[in-house]
Amino acid sequence: MQDFELVIGDKNWSTWSLRPWILMKVTGIPFREAHIRLRQEDTKAQALSHSPSGLVPVLKWDGNIVSDSLAICETLADLFPEKKLWPTDLPERAQARSAACEMHSGFTDLRRDMPMDIINRYPGEGHSEGALTHARRIVGIWHALRSRYGHNAARDDGFLFGHFTIADAMYLPVATRFRTYDVDLAKLGDDGLARTYMDRLLALPAFFEWEEGAKLEMAARA
To answer: Using one digit for the tens of pLDDT, what is the confidence trace for 172-213?
Structure first.
């Protein structure tokens, strides 16, 4: 059995840590956690002790070090083909990768103006024109993928392509942002499909575990 260690940042803030963590939890890939406290004077030094990139998350296994959330997810997809971390159908897999990569490289206004803050609520804050433009695009992605692929999947568990994939892991932190800043998806063109998907993500037992961890970590900082 592979021995995995996932090095992550604070659960309240680290969107990139959440992505591979939730993927491994939901799909049953066992791992050990190592934590780095963010926003500290020694945060960079802590990260460098795990990876030359000086960034989290980091996946360690059998002497290998993989940094960057999407690279970690891709590595896990290669190591566990039976988990179907990408859709098996080639066109669907292409769409899943396209959606994941758009999240990975884009939506900078949304990230800047509505940073992830799991335990707090700031209704109405961060609703800049740029952030809401990105939110509208994300609602469109969710709606298009759920209606075309999720609803027609042989096993529809409520995710973008029916079963949980890397694409869902990439968008879970966005769902937390929409909740934190009380984004009205209906005003962004949602007919309810995107909201139902968002609620499905936030109802994951693994996400509850992450959320409880965030509360404990932030309480320890107080």
So the answer is: 999 999 999 999 999 999 999 999 999 999 999 999 999 999
Residue among 140, 141, 145 nearest 188 (CA): 140
Has residue 221 got a pLDDT over 90?
no
Domain ranges of the chain: 4-82, 86-205
Beta-bridged to residue 34, according to DSSP, are: 7
Bridge partner residues of 161 (DSSP): 163
What is the spatial distance between Cα 218 and Cα 106, in angstroms, rounded to a whole number? 28
Q: Which CATH architecture has domain 86-205?
A: Up-down Bundle (1.20)
3-state secondary structure of 109: helix
Q: In sequence order, which residues have a C-beta less than 8 Å from that of residue 44 and are 6 or more positions away? A: 54
Q: What is the residue whose two structure tokens read 């059998």? A: 62
Residue 1: per-residue pLDDT: 62
Can you give the pLDDT at residue 158? 98
Q: Which CATH superfamily is domain 4-82 in?
A: Glutaredoxin (3.40.30.10)
The rounded distance, in Å, linking the Cα atoms of 133 and 127 is 10
Name 66's bridge partners: 59
Q: Return the pLDDT at 75.
A: 97
Give dist(CA 24, CA 4) in Å, integer: 10
Return the HEC string of 63-99.
CEEEECHHHHHHHHHHHCHHHCCCCCCHHHHHHHHHH
Distance between CA atoms of 201 and 175, rounded to whole angstroms? Answer: 7
